Records
---
Amino acid sequence: SVAVVLLLRRSTAGHGGGLFASLGGWVERRRTPVRLGTAALVVVLAVTFGVAGLPALSADPAQLRAPDDPPTLAIRRLAERFPDRMLPDLVAWRGTDLDRGLTALHEARRAVRDAGGAADWSGPGTLVPDRERQVRILGLLAAFPRDGFAARAAAALRAEGLNPVPFAPAIEKLASALAVKRPLAGADLRSPALRPLARRFLVEPGGESILVAYHRAPEGSRAAIASALAESDRPVVATGPRALLEGIASNVEAEFRLIPLLVLAAVLAATAVGFRSLRLALLSIAPVVLGMAMTLGAMSWSGLTFNMINIGLIPMVLGLGVDDGIQFMNRLRHERGRPVAETARHVGGAILLTTLTTCAAFGSLVLSTSPGLASMGYLVMLGALSCCAVTLLVLPALLPARRKS
């Protein structure tokens, strides 16, 4: 900021000599081309937003950390090796009857599979399958001689030259599993044999039961999965870290489509009261409206997206950008009877100086290794420079050449 002030000191001295001495005259001589260029810019931005849409709000936490950060690299490697364990998608049921919960999750798995998910599905159904499948398996095991299984297994291990003692706990668990003569039910998840395995799928806080199934949903399919589960009459919901982040991002994005409009409305009302003229107020906020449109267009072209850090800067950029138009129109109001080009020469240096110092301050964030912080710097610089350019080049061309005294 100090360097910018020193470089522009001579340019902003007096009545705007040096760099800005011919700014107003340049705009005055090219009033028609600037107006045509502004209309063309509006058309280009409209086409851009129609084709590419507004910059999306990303809920990916990886965009907030440096790609070469050791924890980020470790998480990425673990996710490649264990995709169903790192940030899985969940389907949860809440109630008191575990049998109904198991049935609901069985049906939910089919609904999730039809909606494009259910990859790497892992749930309580792996411990307690549906009743028809259990009956079929018990019928096959009925022909298997289960009496004396532990002794026969130990003898088979000795015949292979192995010591059966280390295998004894596993043999006992397998023998107890083969001894089951009835289909398992939801209550068996609380049994001593299944509880250590069911702990990952069953939580019972305050006398209520929550059954959870894990799966991996492809990107872009979570909305369809949530809709499919919502249409079911079962109390089953789609949840999980990714679904939670996407839900938060969706709510934030919906609110931030309204907040800028409220900010502009409040600024317009305050400016109209201060200027005692709705026309002057509309001209004052015109640079920030067109400047923000330019910023969003540049973000769409460059691939810069909103994230949970930089989206909060939108009201601040609006507040910074509207100052340029207010300062210009305020100076113009006090210089009635003088050419608009003279006003542009007088106030142009100050507006550009404040814009460059703002860019110098926030631009330092682009040096951050965190993509989230760097995006804050890019967003503020784009917004400040766009509003400044519209104020100094477009706004004078939209005004009459000479204001009436």
---
Amino acid sequence: MKTLIVTAALVVLTTLSFSQNAKESSATSEKENLNVEFISKSANTLTMKVDKDSTVNLAVKVRDAEGNMLSQNWIKKTDSKTLTFDISNLPAGEYTFEVIKRNKILYSKQVSKSDGIIAMSE
């Protein structure tokens, strides 16, 4: 019985690890003509694709669980942009990726990093 439980637990953990390797999440804001795709292809990199139709610059900010800003990138007025984040140096924890227009958060994604696994909120 113990062997069956241990085997089942290993199958679940392995399945979760593989499913995290190509996780994708996207969101669309019709009001702002904004489409954001968030892709995790490995435990060390996250890719954010931002397509927009806007006449203003957008900021992309990464914050830790305490709200401290770890990085900031800018997307120029009518650009669409793909940003790749190397998170290998970040310790295990909770992180927030935000797309901001004039101090208004248009998109926010919670990401957890733990033991080489990345989990994204839906």
---
Amino acid sequence: MKLKQLLTCTLMASCLALAAPVSAEVKIALVAKSLGNGFFEAANTGAQQAAKELGDVKVIYTGPTTTTAEAQIEVLNGLIAQGVDAIAVSANDPDALVPVLKKSHAARHQSGVMGFRRRQGGTPNPPQSLQ
């Protein structure tokens, strides 16, 4: 549990460092693979705790009810429309999210993909470039 909180705090600090706040409150979206998953619920608990400690930070915890890329894309489009400052997403299909994450970058949001599937040899398998 402590490791999850540490990772969540580290991710939030990274997002805050990259986000250019437009208002006094920084809005960071934490997008789970699906709602109701204990791992992501614990990540949300840590993120909310870190936001409280940092002050002027609002964490929006959300995610789809199904573990599909299409459902995550809908959630991400909604967050972009809301104008959040940063998006951290645990992608169901990292490559499928590239277009919407590019849209997020174009809207000047900071976004990142949390966690990658591993290739057979144990090396990271990141999504295609967001550049």
